[in-house]
Fold each of these.
Amino acid sequence: MPSAPLPVVEIRSVANAQNEWVALLLGMPGAGLDDPALQDLFGTPDLLAAIAPLDCIVHVDDATVFTPPVLNVLPANRVLLAVRADALATDGTARRLAELQLAGYRVLIDGPLPEGVAAPVGLRTVARDARLELPRAAALPALFGPHLAYHVDDMARYGACENAGFSWFSGDYALEGSVPDGDDGTSRRRMLTMLALLARDADSHELEAQLKQDAILSYHLLKLVNSAAFSVGAQVTSFSQAISRLGRRQLQRWLQLLLYARQHPDGPPNLMLPLAALRGAALEAACRNEGGDRDEQDLAFMAGVFSLLDRLFRMPMAEVVQDLNLPEHVEAALLRRDGQLGQRLRLVESGRPDPATLEAAGVEGPDWWQSLLHAYHWAIQVARNV
């Protein structure tokens, strides 16, 4: 584990229009990464190895941070540079960014250009805070791209960004639940029944009987078990085989995640799936790092995954958990973010591991960093196999 303190940096996922994660966004304007933070984050191969094949987009406030030691740890084929547009008012910045682009870096100009400053020739990929005024509709497709919109916090803003020509998106729009077309509540009731069965460690035959009532969940389970992640030769064609292949512990884990699978086999992925996987894996790793046993790790994983069920079902969390008979500390974490588990859930939700939140969660910065790297690696693999 790294000995240096974890840089306090905001970390957010970035998805394309097909709801696939494509990159991680590190830092924000006004709190961009500086020279020491960049060297701490990229000075070891851990980060880029963990999130492969995703790229990293690093926010900086000006181009002076791109010193030779920093560039030595930023591989141009994996790292995009998002630089505040205000920096272009400083002499030499446009030339420096053009040099970086010639060296193979992809450079995004973040924000509107300062008054009186012309767009640099060759630097025509943009990033923009979606909470502010966006470029006019269809203004961006003629530029290089892909263009990034961040702080995209609802689907209405997502639509406006897409109309403007952005194709990479980051924000809470990913947390908006979706109710299947024509759903009369039957699907939701079946899913809640499955949750109750999982929470009380139900018999395999009960799980199999419930699975047979949900064609979409059944489809995704069999697809998963037959994927490259699990395949050992013989194709799995029945639920009993799936249960046998996975084992009860892994079956429960995957069924918890598969609740977030796409609503239709040929539909786009649900962006809540990798987010739920990230939360579950991060909380499980933190529990394991402090010596928690397998049962405690499973409960930590469950808390992370279940923390998005209110969003998925579009109903209060209190209604979701009322029939699940969860342990008291898990329920307290889900309902009020109480207790150590609740504080850790708050930490992974925040995307920004500041010292005060780390202390409240009872974890050290380097330990949490390793937990996050593990969680992102696992969530990326989940999203690629479901």
Note: The longest strand covers residues 11-16.
Amino acid sequence: MKRVVAEYEDADDASAAEADLRDADLEPVRPDVDNRFFDPAARPPEARGLVWGGLVGGVLGTVLLGAMALDFLWLPRLSPIMTASRLTLLVFGFGLGAAAGGFVGGVWGTYQDIPDPTGPRVAVDAPDDRASDAKERLRAHDPSALDEAVTTHR
């Protein structure tokens, strides 16, 4: 079974989506989610932290190893990697910085609040073979967010 959740900006769109699901013999509900971290329609804030942390860390890592390659900065413990070419050092610096920054940004993102839903939501529990049909029916009414989660395995 999969749970497909869609969030709409307009109540009329949500009502039309519910009617469309009922026509397909699926039973829609208006979900109440106590913890937004378990809501499939909610966008997790750690994803934003991962992206920004990875980008900032990548740039800082590139600048750090670029400065070492141009002899502006010298760190004795990192000197063995200085035998690589400048391009290799820049790519290596970007990779290390992106990994470290992405980790820090992801951890920072988990401490951020998830915004409350702005519009009505429609959810449906559908068997695996009908989940894609339910998702397409919900998508036909222009949701602002749409996602699915596996609820049970058979």
Note: The radius of gyration is 23 Å.
Amino acid sequence: MKILYNGKELLVEDGITIARLLNQRGLKPDTVIVEYNYQLVMKETWSNITLKENDVIEVLRFVGGG
């Protein structure tokens, strides 16, 4: 199935959740925020949201600096 991930097409397995997608991509939940179809979603709901064809996911990482 095809989704849009950070502006690029990405093929993912059917029935994947946001939580599983982030895990597969090696992202730690405490270091990112997720926008799902243009809505910010709380990390507590990531395992309950099953992605569908053409969904749009934006993942922003927190980066520290000095």
Note: The chain has a mean pLDDT of 95.
Amino acid sequence: MSNAIMLKFTQTAQAFPPKRGAAERADDFLEIATPYILAKAEEQASRCSQCGVPFCQVHCPLHNNIPDWLRLTAEGRLEEAYEISQATSSMPEICGRICPQDRLCEGNCVIEKGFGSVTIGSVEKFITDTAWDSGWVKPLVPLADRSGQSVGIIGAGPAGLTAAEQLRIKGYDIHIYDRYDRAGGLLTYGIPNFKLEKQVVGRRIARLEAGGIAFHNDFEVGRDASLAELRERHDAVLIATGVYQPRELAAPGIEANGVIAALDYLVASNRIGFGDEVRDFDALNAEGRDVVVIGGGDTAMDCVRTAIRQGATSVRCLYRRDRANMPGSQREVAHAEEEGVTFEWLSAPDSFDADTGNVSSVNVARMRLGAPDASGRRAPEPEPGAPVVLPATLVIKALGFDPEPLPLLFGAPELGVTRWGTLRVDNRSMQTNIDGVFAAGDIVRGASLVVWAIRDGRDVAKSMHQHLVAKARAAARKPVAA
């Protein structure tokens, strides 16, 4: 087939789905962009250059076959485009919404310089949303019957859900254990609705439940069962807890009321969105308050944009490096600025003032970038001069997350960890030092992207399948006692 329908990037401009106005979207928690119409999705997909070395695919952690499904979309063959998209991704419509495409596929599109990249994420979202609406998303059906073996998965986030789906397809009995009352992990409780509406996550989970996967919510390993007890119940166990321990900040006055952790703040907001009653929500609500968020990652962006929607009087984000060196998505920064967030670049909290025990202001030290640190990034260092005082009646710490002490929590002191507290695994098999116990996602690689968790979930499922097949064969060869 000729390329006549493709290569339109020289005559068709880049066009993302239109965003709702900043004032309108700041009044609700709905997703900020309207969906593509079919003609627009086809038009934007036709901009793909179908290059010989598809860097978009190379730089996607899942190595999605992006040029293929872009071409099929341009040709109006959406169901086929969906089939190719879902063949390598367990949650394409979620990745299309929350992946930092500007740092991954779109940021490496060969036409990005000069013409603007293909809007890969928006087309990916369109394809799979259309598939759900059209009934093309097939039920989860096991391809074999291996119900004699079961797998226990600790953590119902993206890595755990992905591994569960892949192993259920192989025919194993799957049980997922999660501390929250709803499955989804940070997809459900960490990411705000304006980036990922919860029915999008809910329909994925409902498909897994309908496919025979058992969910055990409100279940804490170490409280409701030890790791050893789960190993007794199952033929293999996967630890996919993610990393939830917030990094702390050492500064005078940090203990004041109104200085809170980002995850506590986001979970409370998402629970309100579900209609839950949140105890002491007033302490976690930005309405009518001067809000300062500390951090420059995507979690910080989620916090500042949530505070705007809750009706904060002012919202500022402090980041100790400059804009070019921040770890979060530049698109998220642009969305936040449109919605009224002020960014204080090269700024770090020096101390906090309190009025009758409640935080009232932040004393901010101005920073400059010095020599590169161990990671190669220029390290921030204080500029001479007195701190700048910013009003703050709610301070949200969004400094990142570290692993919880799982060997202690799980009653498994023998479980091997690295010096960073992440679980130590064999790089090839993804098995821990305990036989039959595997680990995947952020608990192995540290705080990272959802797309990497999905990749890890798919990879670990393959390793676990090999382990379980070998285990079943060994059991079959074992002589029966007389």
Note: The radius of gyration is 24 Å.
